[in-house]
Amino acid sequence: MDVDIAVIGGGPAGAIAARLLSRAKRETVLIERNLKNEKPCGGGLLSKAFTAFDIPLELIKKRVESIRIVSPNGNTHDISLSTAYLAIVHRVEFDEALRKLAASEDTGIIEGRFNDIRHIDGQSVLTVKTTAGEITIKARHVIAADGVNSTVVKRMLKRFPRRIYTAHEIHSAEGGACNMSHCEFRFGSVTPPGFYSWIFPHKDGISIGTGSEHTREVDAYLDRLVSAHGTKPNGQRRGYFIPVWDGSLYYKNGVYFVGDAAGMVLPFTYEGIYYAMRSAEFAVAAILKNKPGLYRKHWQEAYRKRYLVMRALQRYFLKNDGRMEQLVSLYGHTHIREASMRLWTQDDTKINLIGGFAALIRKYGSVREADA
User: Fold this and answer.
1) Prediction pTM value
2) Is residue 77 predicted with pLDDT exceeding 60?
């Protein structure tokens, strides 16, 4: 099979890339190993994604209107998200809907496992195992959107990105329905160092979880969190990896790396779905102009400073309980809450969100440049 573009991976990044390419009348196939796969994921993404990528609002299972942060000593602050709410989706349904939108633009969908890639005479030659047997696909361009455990990355770069292991359980809500309208982030004793624990609304109740770079310690911390919360799980515990961003992977030998395969996850919050789709959008723009360097250029102009600031804040504030306590106390200031929400939810690079936020931290906190 000869095509213009092959997209490997049918999650949000891959599906958005395929849809945009097909809409531009470029012959595109999307390869997904399991069309019924349910990724263990909180399913939260910024509501602006639905407008930005013309996604049906009916896919939203829950609107999260505020965030609650809890310090090691139990101090709390509630932060309103205003109009920039967090949308909770069911990943199986959401991913399938995005693939159907791509198919409606004439993307070809292949259910099969990508096995290998070779580069011959300026083309990428893919081998894909399907239920009908192995097929070969020749493509002028390839988009690798096959997640944190990317087989494309493994084949081409002989490595995986740095990763954090997370685990979560779904717990039934009291009374059989989830009325939780906020996402809760907990810091301190129920959380591995350098990370946070969460309690989020879920379509089947609530999601309770935590994570760490040290895989073996996650279950013990999650046990403590579950015990402290007092509810019971309605299903098995599930674990999965989240990539850690380092900003190094964009394009190599005709392949564009997007989403989790490129580590495009926002430091500190580890929000990834929206940024995965944006990375796909930037990669598509580079393909349509046949200028691979545009992908890195556009991404860095839009998000590099934001990612660096969020990483610096994570490294400083999540270092120990004292700094976590300081972090939560900062959110007692209205200006800090408002600046945080702008930094997290706005994409306007013409306003100095990052510099403004750093100035407020210096005014109300005591972050030392050496620690950041």
Assistant:
1) 0.90
2) yes
